[in-house]
Structure formats: C-alpha cells, structure tokens
Amino acid sequence: MSADGCSDPSVVEWEKDKLMMMTACDDGRRRVYESGDKGESWTEALGTLSRVWGKKKDGEAKNVGSGFITATLDGDGTEKRNVMLVTLPVYSTENEKEKGKLHLWLTDNTHIVDIGPVSEKDDDAASSLLYKSAGSGEQEKKEDKLIALYEKKNVGENKPSPGMVSVVLTEELKRVKEVLATWKKVDERVSKLCPSPIAEQDTSTANACSAVNITAGLVGFLSGKFSNGKWKDEYLGVNATVKGGVGTENGVKFIGRGAGAEWPVGRQGENQLYHFANYNFTLVATVSIHGEPKEENPIPLIGVKMNDDNKNTVLLGLSYNKERQWQVWGSAGKKTEKHSSGWEPGTTHQVAIVLQNGTQGSVYVDGQRVGGSPFDLEDKGSKEISHFFIGADGGNAGKQEDVPLTVTNVLLYNRPLN
Fold it and tell me: Residue 338's pLDDT is what?
C-alpha cells in the first residue's frame, strides 16, 4: 500500500529506461506513476494518465488489479507506434443498478480511446492482458493476438467462483489498429496547420511553421466533424456538445443567444480523459467575430469553468466588448486589456488559454499575451475543472447578446505552450 492509499500495482516498461505503474486507490481513481531510475523513486503522471479512470458513482469499488501491457503496433501496415493497452471497468446504470463491464482502453501516453467491452454482464473483477506479436518465420502464421484474462465473479454467496475467463480479442485488436491509423492521419493533417499567425507571417525562413512540432502533447482536436449537436474529437477522445451551431469546413459557426460549445473535463464523470487539464493545458482556437456588440456587457469567447457546487465559476476566460477590446476574467477578477491590435469584425484571430502548474493562467491573442503578466489563480485550490467553453459560458446564456461567431481548428494540449 502506497502513501496515497493505492495498491494492486501493474508495472510496464515504457520507452527507454522508463517504468509506468498503474494502481488502484482508496478514493476510487486509478493513479499512474512514472519512474526513470528503475523503480527507485516514483512520480505521479498528473500530466497524462493518472486519475483518468474512476469508479462507480455510488458505493465502494473493490481495489483490483488491471490489465496493463505495452505493445508495438501499426495502424496502416507501415509505421509502428508504441502503445499501452489497459482493461478497466466501465459502469452503466441499468434498472437503477450500476453494472460494470471490463473495457479495453488504448493509449500512447497522450491520446486515450475506449475500444469497448471485453467481458459479459457485470464482470468487473481483476484482469490481465496478453499480447503475441505476429510471427516472422515461414512456418508461422503471420498474425498477432490479444487475449484478455479476467476473474469471473461469484454467482452466489455460497457458490465458488467459476475461476478465470479467457477471451481472444480479435475484433478489438482490429479496432485498435483502426484507431492508430486515424491518429496518424490526424497528426499529418494537424502538422500542416501553422501554430501561430506570427510564424505564418514570418517570411525570414521558409520553414517557420514546420520548425515547431505542433502535435507534441496534442490530445484533442475539434475541426470539421460536427453533426447532431456533437463536435467530434478527431482523435476519437472526448466530444464537445454544441448549442446553436452549424457546421463549417473546419469548425462551427455559433448563431443566436446562448450559442456555444462545452468540452467536458470533470463533467465527463467516472472516467475523465482530460484530467490533466487540472494541472497544465493549452487551449488554442481560430476565431472570427461576425458583427459588432451593441450592449455594454462583454461577450464570452472561450474559457474554462470550475466544478464548484453548481456555481460554475469561470477559472479563466477571454471575452470581447463593443469598444473592440479584449477582456480577461475569471477567479482572479475581471480585467479589460487594450490589445495592441484589438479585434475587428470578420477578421480571423488565433486565441489561446494556458494553465501552468494549476495556479498560473495566461491568455493570448495572435501570439501576444493579453495583460502584462500571468494571472495568479491560487483561489482554484483543490477545485477541479468542469469543462471548457467556446462561445456562451452557460451563465445567463439566454441573456447574452447575439453576435455570430465562427470557431475553427480547436487544439487542446496537455502542456503549456511557449
């Protein structure tokens, strides 16, 4: 048992001279630790996988070991990628009773995708995974295999456990490779985007944009996949919910009072794929404001809200007003800043919100910080983030002035960008 009340460790080797350990903890969230000295010391991986997976809403969950392995797989038959495969329960409510099924999860230590269930009924006990790579010999059939082993639950109080169940995950492995192929295609597409207007306008070097690795630490990407009120993450992670939006080529146009999008963090509930955002993140978007406000109140553009007993406090946000000024506001108080260029109707701007070490926030427009220095967000304390908002912030949304807004190519990173 660790100092954090965690037990049942599963350890894998990840990259060169690095170990990863997943544990089951008393508070219900799975903590993941990293070690770069062969296990002599461990640091919680708060920026990637730790505390992503949780427990059922009500009742205590028994601490059990998870399936946790690494593999080198290809998604399109050419380039191979190192990944981790995990089996953990996912709970759903059925007839007012929460039932858990083991699900297979895929991650490359940046992106995370739920591949789907691998057990039947409410089997959510201890599990493990086995992977066999494809053979290379002439006599050996060239195919790889993924197998899940899990403990079958007791069928009654006085009946013995049926023991272990073995499941060959043929379709699931196929799905894993499809996801990897998708990740690769999205990486290639994002790599063609210029990370900032400043680099885009820099003609002093031909590769001003390519000099920056725009996909390093990139977790989520909202672009042109929008339908039925869902703005889908191109990396197959967490989707955003949209109100009052219509799809455009690379994003969404928000029209009407209260129009906007919510991209959940803590609001996801049991499993929070973007839990890293409580410590470090960068949220980047390309925006264009169509029209001019007539009312005095500033109009929210983009930001992040806290999960604080239904108060929905804005931790950090960017808005604009009829004087064509940018305004930063949140838990540190409101502050109107005169940006060097202000904003212009119909003009494309790149905006970014950055959180560093959970306590310092910054807002940027077109590569320049709004305000002279980062904002102190010490008031955040132990409160966690609820969601990101784009457009309306949800607070008196119906009263917010209707100024059409187009948002494209929204990028979410698990690190503060320079």
Answer: 58
